[in-house]
Amino acid sequence: MTQPPDSGPSAAAAGTWTLGDLVVNRLGFGAMRLTQVGNAFGADAIPSDRSQAIAVLRRAVELGVNHIDTAAFYFSALRSANELINTALAPYPDDLVIVTKVGPGRDIYGEWVDRARPDQLRGQVEENLRQLGRDHLDVVNYRRQASVGEITDHVGALAELRDAGLIRHIGISGVEPEHLSQALAVTPVVCVQNAYSIDDQRPESAAVLRRCGEQGIAFVPFFAIAGAGRHRGPAVSQGGAPPERGSLAEAVAAIAGTHGATPAQIRLAWTLHQGPHVLAIPGTGSPGHLAENVAAGAIRLSAPELASLGQSVA
Ligand SMILES: NC(=O)c1ccc[n+]([C@@H]2O[C@H](COP(=O)([O-])OP(=O)(O)OC[C@H]3O[C@@H](n4cnc5c(N)ncnc54)[C@H](OP(=O)(O)O)[C@@H]3O)[C@@H](O)[C@H]2O)c1
User: Fold this and answer.
1) What are phi and psi of 13, to 5 degrees?
2) Measured from the CB, is residue 221 less than 6 Å from ligand 1?
């Protein structure tokens, strides 16, 4: 087991969840932001500082993070999230769970390619194995793209790879309740990744969140900090939430003041209060933000505070 550091926050403070048979701290880390400065992939992306990205990954594990989300298609011209993870963390701690995703893809120039057919998912899984330097992947999410209505065949292809020993557990991402039903008809599912945040409580994701709770499946929201602003950047450092949710931004700021915390930390704390099965995977390339994000796992919000931030389903 990775030991908590002598000082500093610990990702264990938010408690644990079990993905299949893999126990993780509920406060994890998303690797998408490690490969470039700013928020956009593509030819114009400014590559991140390599040594800082590696230091952030190592510090995350020191702070008790044992759930890292990644993808082979997280890369900029000079950096690959999977390669950074491999370089920073291999040989991997026994308790580290690396979750990757397949479905979307980018060519070597960074351009998005057509969505993968079910028979092409093995190639994407093998690419992740090579980049991460592993002989199997802990969890693989099938990341649905909007044009894919029925995910049964894609998830079925992953189930075959699981049965062949390349994958330990299967998750899905970018889904509505009907897709979860389709996947569960084919295989057990250990997690669902959807966009969800204080200022983006879309009903279909809220329904998936609830159903995951009922069925013992982890719900792993992304854009918890970036919020409805998404690729524009973090809602919290751009003067608050979008204009139509200004009062929400004020509520977040007020609660942050009460707790001596930052708005980003309150957004993460709110996320973790949505249910014991809800895991956080904040993404950052900043050592300071990493420490703040891990510390957010220890923040406990009161019922009135949660009510002022929008309906809690916990
Ligand atoms: N399944 C999917 O389709 C999918 C889609 C998107 C993302 N994801 C996963 O979800 C993870 C989380 O999403 P995300 O990284 O896009 O968004 P996020 O975690 O909501 O927000 C990241 C943004 O917030 C900033 N930030 C992080 N910590 C902060 C703090 N303490 N204070 C102020 N700003 C802070 C980051 O900039 P700095 O680097 O400057 O800190 C970055 O701009 C990703 O890393 C990825 O692994 C999955």
Assistant:
1) -60, -25
2) no
Query: What would the pLDDT profile of 213-258 be if each residue is shown by its tens digit?
Result: 999 999 999 999 999 866 444 444 433 334 335 689 999 999 999 9
d(CA 72, CA 68): 13
Residue 127, pLDDT > 60, answer: yes
Task: Select from 188, 193, 184, 217 the least CA-distant residue to 144.
Answer: 193
Query: Contact at 8 Å (CB) between 268 and 298?
Result: no
Residue closest to 102 by CA, chosen among 67, 74, 76: 74
Counting beta carbons within 10 angstroms of the beta carbon of residue 39, is it exposed (0 to 12), middle (13 to 18) or buried (19 or more)? middle
pTM of the model: 0.94
| Rounded alpha-carbon distances, angstroms, from residue 279 to 8, 120, 148, 167, 176 | 21, 29, 26, 21, 18
pLDDT for the residue 235: 47
Indicate which atom in ligand 1 lies nearest the CA of residue 292: 31
Question: Is 90 exceeded by the pLDDT of residue 19?
Answer: yes
CA of 193 to the centre of ligand 1 (A): 13
pLDDT at position 5, please?
Answer: 53
Q: What is the widest separation between alpha-carbon atoms in the chain?
A: 53
Query: Is ligand 1 within 6 A of the CB of residue 181?
Result: no
Residue whose Cα lies nearest atom 30 of ligand 1: it is 289
